[in-house]
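anyone seen this seq b4? input:
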Amino acid sequence: MVLAKRKAGGEAVRILGIDPGSRATGYGVIDKQGAALTFVSCGVIRTSEKTPFPERLKEIYEGIREVIARHRPQLVGVEDIFTAVNPRSALKLGHARGVLILAAMQGELPVAEFSPRVVKQAVAGYGQAPKEQVQQMVRILLKLSASPSQDAADALAVAICRANHYNNLL
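predicted toks r here
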C-alpha cells in the first residue's frame, strides 16, 4: 500500500471513486486528511459504441489501470448497479463493473461498493437528488471553480462517499 504524506490532523488517504459505464466510466481522485477533502483529479474513460464490446471492456480496464498507476490510490469506491429498465444494459454495466473491480483488486486495493442512493445521500443529503444537484454539491464540497462533467462528478461523489465510510470499511 502507498504511504501518503504526513500532515497535521493525521495521515492523508488517497481515494479513487468510480462511476462505471460501458460507454463512459467516470473516475475521481481525492485526498482525505482528517475531515478535509481535497480534489486531486477526475475524468472519463470513453469507449466507442462501434467498438466490439469485449474490446471496450479491455479499454475500460486499461484506462482505470492507468489512472491507478498515475494517482496511486489507497482505497477504491465503486457505484453499484442501479435497477435498469433494459436487462441488456444492466448486464453490460455489470461486465464493466467487473473489469473495474478486477483492476483495483489486482492492485491489492480495498474496494467498497455503494448504491446510487447512498452516494447521493453522502453528497447531497438526499438519496434521490438529481444529477445536477450532485454535480453542484461535489463542486462545493471539493471547492472547485466549475462543476465537473456528470460522469466525473458522479465518480467524485463515490470517492466522497468512500471517504465518509473510511473508518468503517478499511
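The chain has one domain: 6-164. The mean pLDDT is 90. kinda curious what u guys think
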